[in-house]
TrEMBL record:
This is Bifunctional F420 biosynthesis protein FbiB. It comes from the Bacteria. Its EC number is 6.3.2.34. Residues 6-188 form the Nitroreductase domain. It holds the Pfam family Nitroreductase.
Length: 211
């Protein structure tokens, strides 16, 4: 069983300055759109940024938001932890391409139950837990990451910077009704040949067979 295309994907945080051809980017986005989607709603939208100055400014926006959020914390350990996460939230600033993935509206069973108002809100909201709208985005982005790795490109699944989602969207001028920034990934040629891979839990620890 050849699953090497899966194991080629790693989180890459350092990139060369080599540009990614526009046609390649389009093919990667196309691969992303072939992900499974609940009710075939395809509630995703991809914004691709290749302007280095804009990518750098987005990183500064994340930095400013991180500093702002720290002012709402009292516990020094929490403040230190939030500040310490900043370098990981801005690793995209050196990449030649930044892809922002937006999630659009997704009407769920919970929405129907809440709208009709017969079931209590506390009970109805339980049916929103699977959150298929976000699962669609996750599946699409994973397709993109795997396709990129198969072509020799590096990526890094990122959700940390989305705490600055509104500011980022305002800066780039993206405004599509009902859509919110859900994740992002840098894209480029990895700067290093070898990438450290965090250990994975044994399959036996995460697998249950029921016959």
């Amino acid at each position: 069983m050849d699953l090497e295309f899966i194991y080629k994907r790693h989180s890459v945080r350092q990139f060369t300055e080599e540009q990614v051809p526009e046609q390649t980017i389009k093919e990667l986005i196309k691969a992303a759109t072939y992900a499974p989607s609940g009710k075939n709603q395809q509630n995703w939208h991809f914004v691709v940024i290749t302007n280095k100055k804009k990518i750098a400014e987005i990183a500064r926006i994340v930095e400013r938001k991180n500093a702002e959020l720290c002012t709402y914390l009292c516990d020094e350990t929490k403040i230190k932890g939030l500040k310490g996460s900043l370098p990981y939230q801005t690793v995209f600033k050196a990449a030649p391409v930044l892809i922002l993935v937006y999630a659009g509206p997704y009407y769920t069973i919970a929405d129907m139950l809440l709208a009709d108002g017969i079931m209590s809100r506390e009970e109805a909201i339980k049916y929103a837990n699977p959150n298929p709208g976000i699962q669609n985005i996750a599946a699409a982005l994973e397709n993109l990451l795997l396709a990129a790795a198969s072509l020799g490109y590096g990526t890094c699944w990122m959700t940390g910077p989305t705490h600055a989602a509104e500011d980022i969207s305002a800066y780039i001028g993206f405004n599509k009704e009902g859509y919110q920034l859900a994740a992002m990934t840098p894209l480029g040629i990895p700067a290093a040949d070898k990438v450290s891979v965090p250990p994975r839990k044994p399959v036996e620890d995460v697998l249950t067979f029921i016959s």
